[in-house]
Each structure stands twice: as structure tokens, then as C-alpha cells.
Amino acid sequence: MVHIEKTITYTGHADAVYTLEKGVEPHLFYSAGGDGNIVEWDLNKADSGRLIAKVQASVYSLCLVPERHLLIVAQNYEGIHLIDVLSNKEVGSLQFTESAIFDMKVVGDLLVVGTGEGKLVVIDLPKLKVLHEVEVCDQNIRDILITKDNNCLVASSDSFIRKYQLPNFELQEKIQAHDNSVFALLEKGETLISVSRDARLKFWDTSQLKLSESINAHMYAINDIVERKDGAYLATASMDKTIKIWDYAQRKLIKVIDKARHQGHLTSVNKLLWLEYKDFLISCSDDRSIGVWRIDIKK
Q: Which domain of life is it from (predicted)?
């Protein structure tokens, strides 16, 4: 039995909300989108959030470095801004691209950035210096996954997943994974999960990137996938305005969150966070809102 309760609806963004990131405290998280506002939200409060920074272009990606209290903001067509979330002050910036930035991941002192030019840009974070660029493809890089065995998996709009070896970023493997853009990747043990514009949810053997199962999961593009802390359940977000909850072991859909039944979003659901704090699932959308969901699953 699955019980869904929407506990909070946050509004305040003046444009589509594209991305979410966990906060420095368990009850905090950040959001950003088309209005260039970077907002901190407190899950213990149902009122407006705290504006911690503003940039002059849309933001598709945020990346928290918790040990440094540092939030990295990817300003499309400009580069990155480093915000100290304790003081709300910008402590550094770097302009290195004139394209959109879709994802960022930190590996030690390195920041790996995926751009709309089809490049991985590797940055020395303490020095704010570009170390090198990897030409991946001629389309958008949509997601970067650093695996437990220290490889870098890259999902791109040319429908491929590529595996690079760290720290030299040598290409190890390349597969055409979907019929269209690959939007997000999730590693679970020896399994890699990918989601795509083709609306399919696919499961792969991580070591060989060999397909084990493919599910027609949504009506339209799947924008994101996350897992609950215990790993037993997944959530997917789609352009079809829904969030779907999946039993991972059974590869089975167990609940659909939509507007009619659960006060879901009016338009595309762009990003998800499934936090440990009160087991909250957080979603953001083109409808400019952020939803906070409590999901009670009983076997």
C-alpha cells in the first residue's frame, strides 16, 4: 500500500524551476531556474525561501560542496559562480564557456562540468583554473555520474552513454543507449539506470554496459530519476507532468503522482530530490512551483 501526501508547495520563482540541490543542513535545499534566482528553502517552514544569490541568466545546475559550505552555480552562457552559503557572498567565478551548462560533479579538488558544446570541462576547484577539456560529442552533455569504481559516465543528447576512466579521462566504452537524448543516470550496485527523451527506463550491467531490461515508463520524456535512501524505491520525473514511484527489485510501477489525484504539477517535472530528512521527495517544474511529498509505502 502506498500513501501519498503533499505537505508543502513552495512558490516564489518567477520562471520555470529547473534544478534542485541538497542543503548544508538536512532540512535545507536549494533551487534555481529560468529567473536566475538561487533560493534556499527550509523544510521546517512552509513560507517563502531565502534568496542567496542571483545571476543574469538561467540556471540548469547547482552543485553543493558541503565540507566547504560552497554552492556552485552554473550560469548558462557565462560559467560558474561560487557562493558561500553561510555568508551568502560570492567567493569566486570563472567564465569558460558561452554555452549552457547542464550538469556538474565534484571529484576531490576537481569540478567536472558538462556543456551544451558537448564538452567535459575539468576545473581545478581551489585554483579556479581549467585543467583540460574533453571533446565528447557535438550535442549537449546532459548528466555526469562518477561511479563507485572511479569512472565517469556521461549521458548526452546524441543518445549515447560514454565511460571515461579517471583521472585521465580516457574513453573506455561508448554505447547508443536510447533512441534520443539520455537525460539522467543512476548507479545502484552493479546496475546502471538511464532515462531518456524516448520515455524509457533502462537497466544496464554497469561493468559491461549491457542492457538487462527496458520499460516504457512515461508518455513523454523522462527528465530525472532518484532513489530512496534504502534503495528499495525509485522516482522518475517526466515532461508528461507526472512523478512515478517504482519498486526497484520488481521493476514495477506502484504509484503515479499527478494533478488530478495528488495536487501534482501543471507542466513538466524537471528535477527530483529524495532526502533522508523525513523521507521527503521534492520536485520542481516548469509551472514555477516546488512540491514536497511524503510517501508512505507499506508492504
A: Bacteria
Instruction: Find, among 155, 141, 159, the residue nearest to 60 by Cα.
Output: 141
Q: With 90 as the cut, is the pLDDT of residue 48 above it?
A: no
**What mean pLDDT is predicted for residues 134-153?**
95
33-100-57-72 Cα dihedral, nearest 10 degrees: 70
Mind listing the pLDDT tens digit for each residue in 183-192? 999 999 999 9
Tell me how far apart the alpha carbons of residues 141 and 155 are, in angstroms, rounded to a whole number.
6
State if pTM tops 0.85: yes
- Please give the torsion angle defined by the CA atoms of residues 113, 18, 225 and 82, in that order, rounded to the nearest 10 degrees: 40
Predicted confidence band at 3 (pLDDT cuts at 50, 70, 90)? confident
Which residue from 96, 172, 103 is spatially nearest to 131, judged by alpha carbons?
Answer: 96
Tell me the three cell numbers of residue 139.
Answer: 550535442
Sort 276 into a burial class: Cβ within 10 Å, 0-12 / 13-18 / 19+: exposed
> Distance (Å, rounded) from C-alpha 122 to C-alpha 112?
5
Helix (H) or strand (E) holding 129: strand 129-135
By C-alpha distance, which of 177, 132, 133 is closest to 153?
Answer: 177
Q: Nearest to residue 293, comparing CAs of 1, 10, 24? A: 10
Distance of alpha carbon 250 from alpha carbon 256, whole angstroms = 16
